[in-house]
Every structure is written in structure tokens, then in C-alpha cells.
Amino acid sequence: MPKIIQLSPHVANLIAAGEVVERPASVVKELLENAVDAGASQVTVEIRDGGMTFLRVTDNGCGMATEDARTAFLRHATSKLRSAEDLAAIATMGFRGEALAAIASVSRIDLMTKTPGAIAGTSLHLEAGSITEETEVGCPDGTTIIVRDLFFNTPARMKFMKSDTVEGGRVAAAVQQQALAHPEVAFKFIRDGKQVLSTPGTGGLEAAVYCVYGRECAKMIKVESRWESYSLTGFVSKPTDSRPSRALQTFFVNDRPVKSRLLIAALEEAYRNQIMVGKFPACVLHLNLPANTVDVNVHPAKTEVKFLSEKAVFDCIHYGVLGALNKT
Ligand code: ADP
Ligand code: MG
Predict the structure, then answer these.
(1) What separation in Å is there between the alpha carbon of 62 and the centre of ligand 1?
(2) Which residue has a Cα nearest atom 7 of ligand 1?
(3) Ligand 1 — pocket residues by CB below 6 A?
(4) Most buried residue, 31, 39, 46, 253, by CB count within 10 Å?
(5) What is the pLDDT of residue 11?
(6) Which helix (H) or strand (E) holds 66?
(7) pLDDT for 216 beyond 80
(8) Nearest alpha carbon to residue 209 among 217, 198, 220
(9) What share of residues in the chain are helix, strand, coil (percent, to 5)?
(10) What number is the average pLDDT over the span 125-132?
């Protein structure tokens, strides 16, 4: 056996980055979550070439002080978690302090950020995770991050990228998902110079659903139910409007988009005998439950969750949706 060595932080970062940053859409998801955590009310995403060469996210959130801006790109650097106990009840979208470090390690980044109280903002340039330039700049309150040349230093990952059209489509889906997750935030999405999505940031979930899915949603059924400290809100399709795939099933747990077989099963149980085999209901459902009854620390991408009581979650969705379907 060759001698064992501990990998350099740079190589360790590249390995870890693989789990967080799979493609441009995952970069956008992480940057949008950061903007939301920063309290932004307006967020703009702009991409070129499917996000591979240019991807910019601008928010009007709390911004970062110079020192924080530098620290933000270190691995496990976060303002959202302080102790092991905090992991038991996570109230922010981010908490692992990994995203910026991961994204930076596989791209070139320009950051401009300013806190509301500051006279000037900070501009940083990073190449493959290292800060190569730092200047003071005049800029609006909030944060702008530009990610260029994603995966320029990881050819192995680059090979797996699909066409710009496909990657851009996935970015669009990621923006739509965040727009549905946070109807209180106004999102804009500009793709190759053309604005393709704009949500009002007011008017709640219904307005956001309308912007994302268009008139289709007018036919959807409203779901609103409570069960102890759990609440379920959103929209589901009529049994007669079922789809050929599950592509239009979107679930949020405490405003976080999640993939969960349990939630799918609970939804579909409500349609049992009402929908043909091979057809699927569509939904945009927000499940809210106490932060200490769900574990989001399952995977770096944070799209998987573990529930303390799967039965309670299943029943909440099943009966919540069933109730809504029976009303119509
Ligand atoms: P996490 O979100 O898990 O904390 P990130 O690597 O995504 O980790 O971000 C690191 C830190 O950088 C955050 O905790 C936050 O303090 C800061 N940060 C990142 N993006 C923004 C933003 N858009 N506005 C303000 N602060 C930000
Ligand atoms: Mg984050």
C-alpha cells in the first residue's frame, strides 16, 4: 500500500464540492437560498449559456461586512449555526457553511456586497476558491455574486454537463421552485438577455403559482388544513387533470423544496381510485411543522429530510388533500 497522506484543503474542497454543486441549477439554488436567508425582498437571477459561463444573483438583503465577505468563502463558515444543539431545530435555508466554498472552488467569482449601514461596499474576486483581488466599491445595499466558467478546473465534472438549453432549463426550474418556496420574495429570472419569469413578491402562494404555471393553476384546488402543530397549504390538481409524470409535484417542508417518497405516497393515496394507472396528480404543497420534528441534515444538497413522525406527516398530507378534493 502507498503511504497515506491527508489531502490538501483545495483537493478536499473539490471532492466535497461535488456533492453540493452538481450543475448550474444547484449553484442557483444555493445562491437563492442565501439571498432568502439574508432577508431579501427582491432577487434577480441572470444566466448566459445555460449558466455555464455566466450566472449572476443579485439581492437586496442584509449584505456582508468586508471581514464576513472574506470568511464566507471558507469551508464550514456560516452565520446561521453556532452549536451542535442548533442542528436540532434549523430555521434557515442554509446552515452547513459549504455552498460558497464549494461553488468558489470550481469557478471564478466576483462578489459585491454592502450592509445597509456601511459607507462603501466590498468587492472580491476569487479564482478556484482563492481571493485574488479585494477593493472597496460603491454599490447598492445587498449582495451580487457572479459565477463564471463553472467547472473550469474540474474537467471530469464538466464532461457531464448537458447542452446549454438543458442546463438553462434546469436553472429555470430551480428559480421557479424558489419562487414557489418563498412567495413573499419577488424573483426575476433573465435568460440570455430575456426576462422569462417575474413574481410579485406579494399576493401569497396563489400569485406565485400563477406566475410560474400560468392559467393552468386556475383549475387547481386549494388545500388548507391544520393538524396540531402541522399545517398544510397549497394547490393540487383535480383528479380529471392528472399528468403523465410526477414532474409537476412540488413539495416544500418549512419552505424548503424536498424530495420525499413519503410525501408523494401520501398525496397519491388521496387520489386512490380517482386517477388512472400511469397518471399522476400535480401539486404545490407547503408542509409546515415544528423545526425540531424534522431533520434536514441528511445530505449536503439539503433536499432530503427525515421526519420524527412519518405517520403524522403522511396523515397530514393524505387527509389534508383528501378533504380538499372532497369539498369540490
Ligand atoms: P450557509 O448558507 O450554509 O451558511 P454558505 O456557504 O451558503 O453557507 O454562506 C456562508 C455565509 O455567507 C452565510 O452564512 C452568510 O452569512 C453569508 N452569505 C452568503 N450569501 C449571502 C447573501 N446573499 N447575503 C448576505 N450574506 C450572505
Ligand atoms: Mg447557503
Answers:
(1) 10
(2) 99
(3) 30, 34-35, 37-38, 59, 61-64, 72, 77-80, 94-101, 143
(4) 31
(5) 87
(6) helix 66-71
(7) no
(8) 217
(9) 35, 25, 35
(10) 96
